[in-house]
Amino acid sequence: MPGTIKTRRAYLLGNPDKPSATQALADLCAFAAARCEIAGSATALDGRLAVDAGADRLIVIGGDGTLIGVARSLGAQQIPMIGVNVGKLGFLTEFSAEELKADFDRAMSDAQLLSPRAILHVAISSAGGAPATHLAVNDCVIQAGPPFRLVTLGVSINGDHLTEIGGDGLIVCTPGGSTGHNLSAGGPIMQPVVDAIVLTPLCPHSLTHKPLVIERQARIEIEACRANEGSTLIIDGQVSAPFRTGDRVTIRRFEADYLIVRNPQHADWHKLVTKLHWGRPPSYE
After folding, report:
1. What's domain 9-117+257-274's superfamily in CATH?
2. What pLDDT score was predicted for residue 274?
3. Which residues of the chain fall short of a pLDDT of 70?
4. Where in the chain is the domain with CATH 2.60.200.30?
5. Would residue 64 show up in a list of annotated catalytic residues for this protein?
6. What is the rounded CA–CA span in Å between residue 277 and residue 270?
7. Of the listed 64, 139, 168, 236, which one is catalytic?
């Protein structure tokens, strides 16, 4: 068949909690089977299934949260992911099912569509428990939590003490995650491929603590100088752990980037303008 890519291997994952993802999974499996080799499919969020199957592309069907969870599960063995949106915003999941069908061959084979995105390695040290490590695709957030009194966080970068922040917490995010919680907290919007890490204080009790953009290889250490009983460290809005007084978290750039296959029909700023309506002028009607 002209234009097909029979030697490419696709693995399809659908979010098991979304009935629309299950339906789209069956539809896209039938479509893809005529154009490439199907390495496997599952209603699951574990990208390691695709690694074990030797897939060239991982088609992730769900929403942004689905793709973020799958990217974390891949760890250092990242496979280019084609995100198919059946959720709400669809900022990272760039394709609709019909758009993917229209550009399927190119999405499966064109290396120019690959967009590497940073991942953060998060290591938590607690006096009351064993050390724990996580990966953060979007952000690592420390929130004050109940009883919602001001918390104080000591921040160091590359071993040098930077400041103590008193307030409701702190966001450390990747450029790709800058349009999430960071955006809501007044942090900068960054192009996903920028080599940087963003620190955005949450409601700081200070006029001088502003968002800070630092270089990608920085090692960030945050100590809970004063925390609440319910203070929490949250990874990508999906994984959480207590963060009590004396606890410390070390954040650095992870060894691998995750890879998103861009929709060739969308310009770089398409989602920012069409989804978040950035730069829309006021209406004078």
Report:
1. Probable inorganic polyphosphate/atp-NAD kinase; domain 1 (3.40.50.10330)
2. 86
3. 1-4
4. 120-253
5. yes
6. 10
7. 64
